[in-house]
Design brief:
244 residues, alpha/beta, Rossmann fold, six-stranded parallel β-sheet
């Protein structure tokens, strides 16, 4: 039995894993889907102070509360930055890092450094509400960027997506021991549609992972291709570290 922790991306929440979780759980694995402070189901908790470190704290707190170890830690999109920060805090508890259509950030970088071009998207959707600098407001343009085309998926997502604090994308990743984080096995699962649009640096970092997969779909792969994604994650769970 493996333990999966699935960390959602910007503006999302635990709801986005609804189709994936049963596929992993039915195979006998434990699955945790923490909601990051101030977004998704916890949007009411949003304050001006919520940033990347807040979200790293959220996931580390889950590790502590559930006494998790040997974890396959997955991050979608912005969640890739969060899981890298978590790996910097509790590297001994992580079996593998899995980046789901996510950049691979390094020490001292923010999300926009690790994903050049992202800043222009965030700026287009950026505005202040009640003193909080927010972006990724749910609207047709961002739905298209998430790769959702099925009308039912679009309606479902629009009911649940929330804006996201801009601070999260501008706060730099601070790793106490970057070399130890880099030593953790990592898998990159990328969406063909978004990988083709990304710059050379993002593609090179993705291809440098220990294992690489591609899914022919848009960015929100856990919604559009949950079964294919589950098969890849189950393959990772079935391969012990010593066998690699």
């Amino acid at each position: 039995m493996a333990t999966f922790v699935l960390v959602h991306g910007g503006g999302h929440g635990a709801w986005c894993w609804e189709r994936l979780v049963p596929l992993l759980a039915d195979a006998g694995h434990r699955v945790f889907t923490p909601v990051l402070t101030g977004v998704g189901e916890r949007f009411a908790e949003l304050t001006v102070d919520v940033g990347l470190e807040t979200h790293i704290d959220d996931v580390v707190a889950l590790f502590e509360a559930e006494k998790l170890a040997d974890v396959i830690l997955c991050g979608h999109s912005y969640g890739g930055t969060v899981i890298t920060g978590v790996a910097g805090r509790v590297p001994e508890r992580i079996r593998e890092l899995v980046f789901l259509d996510a950049p691979h950030p390094r020490h001292g970088e923010d999300l926009c450094d690790a994903s050049p071009g992202g800043l222009s998207v965030f700026e287009q959707l950026r505005r202040e509400v009640d003193g909080v600098d927010l972006t990724l407001f749910p609207e047709p343009g961002i739905i298209a960027a998430f790769g959702l085309t099925d009308p039912a998926d679009v309606e479902w997502a629009m009911q649940h997506l929330t804006p996201h604090p801009m601070k999260c994308f501008l706060e730099r990743l601070d790793l106490a021991d970057p070399a130890r984080v880099a030593a953790i096995p990592r898998t990159s699962i990328d969406c063909k549609e978004t990988l083709e649009r990304r710059g050379a640096m993002i593609r090179e970092r993705a291809k440098a992972a220990d294992r690489c997969y591609e899914i022919d779909t848009g960015h929100d792969l856990m919604i559009t291709r949950p079964r294919e994604l589950a098969e890849m994650l189950l393959e990772i769970a079935g391969i012990p570290i010593a066998a690699r």
